[in-house]
Design goal:
Strand content: 25-35%
Helix content: 25-40%
Distance between the termini: 10 Å
Largest sheet: 7 strands, mixed
Shape: globular
Radius of gyration: 16 Å
Oligomer: single chain
Number of strands: 7
Strand order of the largest sheet: 1-2-3-4-5-7-6
Number of helices: 6
Length: 184
């Protein structure tokens, strides 16, 4: 299992690198111009801006995953501001782990951390988004998320189909995740 902790400004370069690499790996179905645009420099600017704007003071949680003190992934949640799922209070916004460190229970760990954070900050129910060609959405459904929206997200002027999900029982989810991880 990985160690998950709150991020620090000194993690920005690692987060940007992981974000850029994971986008290319995870979203290989995306048009090349979209992937090329979301390179390391784009992500570095994005995460430096996040810290400069002190987004953590706005109930946005940014966490890193470590293996032997090396950052190998990150995850983020925030208040929901997407009108497509207006009744969701919180959003699971991002979770990326370098390929070598996936499938070790990290998905359950990350979901437990993000769900706990959203509950602690009174952001329930919670939502998340997944591109239709990224089969992670099937895992979200197994975790109790309900598909409620299908739409196109416009990236670089290109329509990329995605699904929106809601979880109406984050407390139950958190309990189930704790049971699963404690048994592992």
């Amino acid at each position: 299992m990985l160690n998950i902790r709150a991020s620090r400004p000194s993690d920005v370069q690692s987060i940007a690198l992981i974000h850029a690499e994971c986008w290319k790996d995870t979203y290989s179905f995306m048009p090349k111009e979209v992937l090329d645009d979301r390179d390391y420099n784009f992500r570095l600017s994005q995460w430096q801006k996040w810290y400069n704007e002190k987004r953590y003071e706005h109930k946005e949680g940014l966490f890193v995953m470590e293996h032997q003190r090396r950052v190998v992934g990150f995850c983020m949640c925030k208040p929901n501001n997407d009108d497509a799922i207006p009744y969701a209070q919180g959003e699971l916004h991002a979770q990326y782990v370098l390929p070598k460190y996936r499938a070790r229970g990290t998905g359950y760990q990350v979901l437990r951390v993000l769900t706990g954070y959203l509950l602690e900050n009174n952001m329930s129910p919670m939502c998340c988004w997944a591109f239709q060609n990224n089969k992670i959405w099937q895992w979200y459904e197994r975790m109790g998320f309900e598909k409620v929206v299908s739409r196109d997200r416009i990236l670089n002027g290109i329509a990329v189909p995605e699904y929106g999900f809601i979880h109406n029982d984050p407390k139950g989810l958190l309990y189930g995740l704790s049971q699963h991880l404690d048994a592992a």
